[in-house]
User: What shape does this take?
Amino acid sequence: MHSNKEMVKMGVLETGGVIQYSKGLEGVIAALSSISAIDGAQGKLIYRGIPIEMLAKYSTYEETAYLLLYGELPTKNALDEFTVLMRELRHIPPKVEMCITELPPNPHPMDILKVAVAHSGLYDPDQYRCCREGVMRKVIRIIAQIPTMIAYYHRARTGQEIVPPNPELGHAANFLYMLHGKEPDEEEARIFDIAMILHAEHGLNASTFAAMVTASTLSDINSAIVSAIGTLKGPLHGGANERVLKMLDEIGTPDRAEEYVLNALKEKRRIMGFGHRVYKTYDPRARILKEYAEYLSKKYNDTKWIEMGEKIEEIMIREVGKKGIFPNVDFYSGIVYQFLGIPRDLFTPVFTMARSVGWAAHVCEYTQNNRIFRPRAYYTGPDYVEYVPIEQRR
Ligand SMILES: CC(C)(COP(=O)(O)OP(=O)(O)OC[C@H]1O[C@@H](n2cnc3c(N)ncnc32)[C@H](O)[C@@H]1OP(=O)(O)O)[C@@H](O)C(=O)NCCC(=O)NCCS
Assistant: This one.
């Protein structure tokens, strides 16, 4: 390990003093933003100042998307225009449709989404526009097209006819329609819409940060979204929701939850859907999703999943609540999605479909006053190593 003085000599630090290092960038402020704020101690989340609970109660995904992108709630006219635009832009280019529907059925749909978003960027009529309207259209086009990409791939891989977007339906209802080939009932469409609102934005999480890093090089928005999709896919981030259901399958019945959780904790295995870098209390989004998971369980008279979920929650809070580990957004979302007939491997793509607006809002905000992201690493290697010619190496 080198001293600070040695590091300065080696050009690693420009000045002496205390070396700042935060593993995983914990607690580091990397940008100024007026998009959302999380109070991790109180378990509060606001989008542009509005509490998430109010948006879940009164707003729609389209209105929330407008709020996140433009900074304020739309007037009636502005929302109407935005909604029309979102609906017009849902269609994906024919070549992208052909590519999606011909891709093999086995890759994870998140990998298909990376390909599809990258591919559709090639046909974006606003590809080379860098004016604000051009960028906004590009952004709204991606947000509008992602649900179509997911639904088309799913229909094709299951040997079903693709169902084109229905301009009469809102963003959430239209996705369920394209996925299932029939209009969802109003209540289910609304619950899905609320889930989309709750997943739309969450500060500088890993995928948003990945999008911002890509955009900060002045690359294009499609590249930024592709970076974000690849990042969201991981099990420590958006991929956790799918794994929660896998865990519930493994547990099987509520009476086996205690043994499973205690063993997992003893073996230092993570319980998916718990813990968060910022929340050290109950994630407010999980609280709302839990209510809908309970509601749908009663509606369909199928309470096994929610009973297991609630049992796990009780044990986790009892065992590790003092360490600040509570349910996060991914814990109950899977149960909700399952009741809405969404296949498990589409849970993370559905998260993508909601979060694309948060990614886009941060990219637009950051690049308006851009500075390339370029952190440093603390060098821990040897000071000097002699170069050994290959014939002398052993
Ligand atoms: C979200 C997450 C990656 C945050 O990680 P982080 O801020 O880096 O926290 P750490 O990995 O440093 O964990 C801190 C402590 O809590 C424990 N912990 C964190 N999440 C845990 C979980 N889900 N199950 C069991 N223990 C957990 C860690 O083992 C560690 O314990 P230790 O201090 O005794 O070693 C982490 O909580 C996790 O892996 N959760 C499961 C995946 C998940 O649900 N992701 C979705 C997030 S929205």
In short: The two ends are 26 Å apart (CA to CA).
